[in-house]
Every structure is written in C-alpha cells, then in structure tokens.
Fold this sequence. Notes:
Oligomer: single chain
Radius of gyration: 19 Å
Amino acid sequence: MRHLLWAIALLLSTMPVSAADLRIDPTRSRAEFSVRLLWVSTVSGSFENIRGELAIDHEARTAIVRADLATESITMESARLRRWVLAPEFFDAVHYPQIQFVSEPLPLDLISQGGDVKGQLTMRGITRPATFHLQANRCPPDALAGCVLQLQGMIDRTDFEMRGRRGALSDRVNLGMAIVLSPP
Length: 184
C-alpha cells in the first residue's frame, strides 16, 4: 500500500497543472470593444465583468489563459446603444450571456516579452480561432501575480453571425483587454 501511495504521489507531481495558478482579478480587469459607425464615428463599450485564470504547466514552462466576459456587464455612453449591442443582432446577451477566450499553451517568457497569443474565441455560441497581441511588460515569468497583461485584437463580426446593419457598421471589431493577475 505504501508503494502505491508513493507511486501516485510521484505521478501527480509530474502531471501538468490543471487548476488555476493565478486568476484574473475581476475588480481591476476590463475588456473593451469598438466598431466604426458610418465610417465617421466609433461605437465603443467595455465589459466590467471579466473573470478567468492563468494555468501554468511548470514543467513545460507554458501557460494557458482563459478569460470569460459577461455580456450583460457592458457599459456604454448611451443606454440606447447598450440595448442595441445586447440585442439579438449583435451580442444576443439573452441567449449567449458569455464570451470566452481560451489560449493555446504559450511560453511563459512570452508573457513578459510580448507577442501573439493564439487561441479560440467563443461568442454567440460560435468558436473561431483568434489572435491577440500581448504587449511586453516588466513582469518576470516566475512572478506574475500583480502583473497587468494588455492584449489587443480584431475580429470580423460576420464570423460570429453578427450581420445586422452591415451598411452602417463595419464588420471589423477591435477588442482589447487589460488583465490583472492575482493569486487564486
């Protein structure tokens, strides 16, 4: 029995991490979007409820980022525009209350040095590949708690079946996130 427990402990110590090593601090993190309207002005808003985690595989020196945005948490300058972006022709918050990004495993050094973070973005029940550019920061790869990760990306809204008002609204949507990491 003692040998079995030792073998299980050894096996568990060599397995990749599955629980969050760090979490996204929902009170200090935010995500924003903007889209051109009539090629003259920009419609923008921010998600005030962003949650998620950074799971680190210490042996492989990689991490996976998962970020969840509550669509109802959108804030905008205009209540009318907010109702419209939550409606079925845009985010359809009633049927799809969450937007999620899950990265591919990325080298821990990339978190400090910056670079492209590839992964899967799920919006309106549709999952598509997405790439966000992570800005370089001064956080050491082995001490990421308290770090702010700033990411920028662009999607085509028609990839997620957002086809309303195409004559007035650009298909390209800019997305940005400022994620603050904290201990779980």
